[in-house]
Amino acid sequence: DAKTTQPTxxxxxxxxxxxxxxxxxxxxxxxxxxxxxxxxxxxxxxIIHGLKNNETNEMASLIITEDRKSSTLILPHATLxxxxxxxxxxxxPGGGADGLTFGKGTHLIIQP
Amino acid sequence: xAVVSQHPxxxxxxxxxxxxxECRSLDFQATTMFWYRQFPKKSLMLMATSNEGSKATYEQGxxxxxxxxNHASLTLxxxxxTSAHPEDxxxxxxxxxxxxxxxxxxxxxxLTVV
Lengths: 112, 114
Prior knowledge:
The complex is a heterodimer. Chain A is mainly β. Chain A has strands at 9-13, 18-23, 32-38, 45-50, 55-56, 61-64, 70-75, 84-91, 106-111. In chain B, strands 2, 4, 5, 6, 9, 10 and 11 form a 7-stranded mixed sheet that branches. Chain B has a 4-stranded antiparallel sheet with strand order 1-3-8-7, with no helix packed on it. Chain B is mainly beta. Classes of the chains: A mainly beta, B mainly beta. The A-B interface holds A 34, 36, 38, 41-46, 49, 85, 87, 93, 96-105 and B 4, 6, 32, 34, 36, 43-46, 49, 91, 93, 95, 97, 101-108, 110.
């Protein structure tokens, strides 16, 4: 089981902020929230991860609720190239012996 | 950042033949690599975990004799699809975990068996 719940699909206008929600109500204290995306016919690409504080990098921002049961990935100025399937995954990064479990993700479609 | 190179990106083979897919960690060592399979419009499914110097561990329902995995060095894992059939046609993706940057994925291999 993927342990996360995401909307199946979302649309966003080009140039606007895309906000992708993820529910992870059973997350444990040492698990991080990771976001990956997969553009059609490519391997998944790492976007961002966090534990409990909000995080920002050159690609996106990650907002994690105080109870850590949900999070939102924000693409501040979406472009057509951001059209992809976005996966929210919770994991304990100190492991590394296990592969990732992918849910169905959110298919984000950026509209021109 | 950590880079994983996967080759070939596309391959077409005849039914009954075998196909080898390579996965290399270019700038880091990976004692563990992972192989995924993805059918059209579906999510990635973990097939097996490749362990350097020891046998791979396969997920339930994945035939180890069909999907041979070799991890002979700290930077190379190979997946061989043996006696391929049209139902083996899929998108195969490898991954490795770098210590700092986490899980990194190859660009995938589109296998078509005709």
